[in-house]
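Before a colleague's protein record goes any further, I have to sign it off. My question to you is simply how this chain folds and whether the tokens agree. I do not need a full report, just your reasoning and any doubts. This is what I was given:
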Amino acid sequence: MSRRTSSSINAEICLLDTQIQTFQRRETDFQRLIDDLQKLKDEVSDERKVAEAKRNELEAQKVPINWIPTELLIQIFLSYTDFDFEEPTYRPPVVISHVCSRWRNIALSTPHLWKRITLEGIDKRDVAQTFLKRSEAVLLEIHYSTAPKASPTEETYQMVKFLSNFSQHFRRVESLSLQCKAALALVYILPSINDHLKDFPRLRHLNLAITTENPSFIEAPNLLDKEQDIPKEVELSKPILPSDSRLVRLQLEQVPIFNFPVAFIENLRSLELSYSPRKQSSRDYYYLKMSSLCRFLALTPRLEELILVNTVPYFDVRLPDGATADNADHTLIEMKPVRLNHLKSIDWTWPYTGDVHRFLSMIDAPAMEKLDLWVEDLAQKRNDTLFLRGYTSPLSPHRFIRSIVNYPSLRDLSLQCAGEDTTSSVLRKFSFPALEKVAFTNVVPAARIGENRLPVLSIFPRLESIFRDPRLPNVTHLTLSHFKICPEAGRVEAMFGYMPVLTSLSLDSCLGVGRLMEGLQEQQIGASKPNHIFGTAGGGREGKEASRGVGGNRPRRGVKFCPRLEALSFWGCQDVDFASLRAVVNSRNRSINGFAADELSTFKGVSHPPNGAIQTITRGPQDRNTGAGVHGHTTTEVAKMGRKIKPLRKVRRQAAQLGEPMPSGAEGAAEAPSANITSSIVAMQEAFQPASIIYLRVANCKLIPQEEAISLRDRGVVDVIWAGSD
């Protein structure tokens, strides 16, 4: 085969070079076209994305929740994250951020959503770091509990590790909750608490809890020894120096109370203690003594709320004048009642009947407004129970406590106890002159069913058996739960007669409600003689016309009890029927139902007061001089208006000690009838023009159908809610 010459090869190379140049030019042109097309494609893609975003925005506007402004959504998310969930691994901010892109953007841009950090052990350190980073500089709420299956050694290690990881963030901690099973783990937090101004300058809420029942302090004896540093002779009335501590709420469960600096607890507003009753006695166990609690409370002069959860202090104190030198029990510590001028509320669960008066006799709280008691029946093993609660003296414990405890500012009283006997024995040594809201609950351990398939409930006792003074002239709200209303004649009338200004009545799972409703219905009060009440000051002609006119001597009908009643609520009352409910509404919504047009026309010169209000009535000088309306005949209605609250008579010496002048002669004889006539006229006005029932709640009452309950709106009941019937 002959070889090609150089010239032929060069010629072919030139040809290929020409082709390559042509291909390169074409490739460049195609690339330019591709770039232009890609640019067009990118522009189209961007326009598509904009259109899709607008479309998605329009689609989202069809969903009502997306109408909510961002500011309002943030507030909703904050409220959701404030809920206490049982599962510690459930983290609301994370859930919110995974719903949609809008919610995620809102969550990530709201640091307050990430301020609450809940940890169980130290396994989720990365989660904690994420929350710390996203919370930025806002104040933190840290809730830490040790792992459920951790041993005491592991629990202590976890606590130490937790404190070391979070110590650099303690300065912005606002709320701290630590829960562990053994006492030893809490020892490591005490140094930071003792130096609270440096480590916890912004701490407002502190919760320390030992979750083990009857924990032993054998491995942490220094927690028990702290109480020895507080002098026994602490002056309860001694003023305390101002403190810079921001702590306002303290919760302790099974933790000895004297483990904090005095300055740390001085500004407390709320204190919650939980110490379950001890089942055994040992030097390694902690007992909350009444003397210790009194000294602790004396260090919190600004306390407003006291909560005792299943806690009864061991009673080891007595008042200074509680016993003489001959019969004094020297094993008890002499101590004055603790003066808490700002205490407004006490919530106490599961004391015994005798514990209530013994404890409250040591608390002097003139400004207290609310008292909530859950009273427990005395255990059958009485000796052990009484010993563990301080009933060790052979003398009567009543020698060492105040006889009558007075709370002049108490407005709200709630009592939950089991049975009629317990209800009648708790409050007999208390005085509540300003009471406005009362709630009684019968705690039934096990539901008992009678022959008629209705639960067997205790009878609600007389008010004379419950209170030292059954007169409740200021009570406006009454709630009864799980009681049976006594069918005895006069019982219901006596109860309502003690509460003349009642405006709201609530009944929960009560029986005998029909008998109670009868006392609220319209009744015949009697015949009136208005000219004897008002005299003839307006002219003899008016008196004669009134005497033989519309209101002469004909019988009158009105409500005898609770003329200001406006609200009725029934939950699970299986024997209340619609007929009795309608009768009560008809008797009180008189002006709306159209049969009270001339009820008050016989009272000349007396204008009609507003709905349920009391009108001021004055007497002119001529009435006092002539005695008109004083020495005349009283009406038959006054005698039948219901229970009349009369003040106790004062002896002459007692009145002189109080600085009250004694009425004498005709002047004194005229003053008392004047007050009686005024109150009688007001009572009659309210009886014949009672307040209208405007609020009704019915839930699970089988004898009141929904249609009939709703029909009461036509009779003037403005707010009616019916929620099912079993």
Observations:
- DSSP finds 26 helices and 24 strands in the chain.
- The mean pLDDT is 81.
- The first strand starts at residue 116 and ends at 120.
- Residues 6-61 form the longest helix (56 residues).
